[in-house]
Amino acid sequence: VEHFRQRGEEDVVRAPLPLDRDAERPLDGRVIVLDAGHGGEDSGALSPGSNIGLSEKDCNLNIVLAAEKEFSSLGAEVILLRDEDKTVDIYDRMDKINALCPDLVLSIHQNSMPSSTDITHIRGTVGLYWTESGRSLADCVAASVSAALGRPQRETASQRLAMVRNYKFPSALIEIGFLTSPEEFEVLTSPGGVERTAKAIVSGVLDWYDTQKP
Hints:
Helix content: 25-40%
Oligomer: single chain
Strand order of the largest sheet: 4-3-5-8-6-7
Shape: globular
Largest sheet: 6 strands, mixed
Structural class: alpha/beta
Low-confidence stretches: 1-10
Mean pLDDT: 88
Distance between the termini: 16 Å
Number of strands: 8
Order of helices and strands: EEEHEHEEHEEHH
Radius of gyration: 17 Å
């Protein structure tokens, strides 16, 4: 933990703790916040075909719940901003992570494109960040997910999104895939695909910790 003063007030920044990847529980002592994007009245992107009944909010939650188990098994204290299908205001999410000041934050989302585009050729995983501390986190997690799912990795990009603009800790938003891509939709909604995605997210975080070594 590092302390500094800004505008006359003391603030706190979480610096990455050293990690022994070979340890039985390498994430002991880490506090990780997982955000399942959307929820409740906010469905997020819709799946192809109105009869399928699965939207982005469902995919996000399924992946986050699976990732929670993986992170917990490695010793992390995992905090979910939602653990069921409910509406959570974006400002409430921001206030909560600001109060927690965790080691890192990952917000899980899915991408989509309008039907007027060629959805058969637009696909892949992308990591988004705003503060510089989130750049490598976004890149490591997106790279791990894209490799695990056999999907293209799109270029990591900077966007001033609500969930990634807190400078106190590394944070990234990961767009796992395109719900409007039939092949990616099939992966994202299958039990095996959800499990592979969750494991890849954890592996990406461990990869990120490797990059933080002096």
